[in-house]
Predict the structure of Polar amino acid transport system ATP-binding protein.
Amino acid sequence: MPTQLDNARRGEPAIRFDGVDKRFGDNVVLRGLDFTVAKGDRVTLIGPSGSGKTTILRLVMTLEEATGGYIYIDGEPLTHVERGGQRIALKEKHRNEVRKRIGMVFQQFNLFPNMKVIDNIIEAPTHVLGMSKADAVAKARQLLDKVGLADKEDSHPSQLSGGQQQRVAIARALAMDPEILLLDEVTSALDPEIVNDVLNILRDIADTTDITMLIVTHEMQFARDVSNRVLMFDGGRVVEEAEPDVMFKDPKEQRTRDFLSAVL
Ligand code: ADP
């Protein structure tokens, strides 16, 4: 049965940026950014290097903190709320709770180098979700099977190729049963011949789950196959937003046309 809270949240976007600012010193990366990602959406952010796409993912993951504005996950404020016209920081405990629903896969895999593959995957489910070790191991084995690495559970990351490490990182993110999966240029550090293996696993996840995905990628074909919405991002704001077929075939904005003609 849906609770009152579920009813209240139904129709809420999975991710909402409301007037978000992000500065690094004098470098203003985002200024008053508004955008939403609906539940179950697969949204790809495209745009020039340095335009702030990774920063957006890192803000959602609370690896960075916005310098202004508000981010909501499932309608719940992530790090700050507005009270009496003031922007108030929420407690660490609150943001950790909200962050449990979000998984992230990084360009550089970011596996724990001193832990075996299986231990990398069960670390968060056991420590953050309080899952029993036996359950976490059973789930990790299923996920390793799904990403084609059932025989690597006792390996250390350094014994694996880049593509294999990235598949472990995907399994690790999925082990938390995230509602939202953030994919940050996950194939950029891989040799060209294994890029497709990793993309195929992600396509399969997109096809077989309803996880909301926010994707930063240079793989335009992947963006086209997997996303239902593409945001062209430049100068700290969304320049254009469209379904992939429209964005890649008939973009409206000159800025988007220039960018796509340089990368396609
Ligand atoms: P993109 O993903 O679009 O290439 P990024 O989000 O990585 O862009 O970077 C946007 C801008 O923010 C760049 O100017 C970058 O140098 C700056 N930036 C990102 N992270 C940091 C950081 N931790 N410290 C200082 N500047 C940063």
Notes: Residues 192-208 form the longest helix (17 residues). The two ends are 48 Å apart (CA to CA).
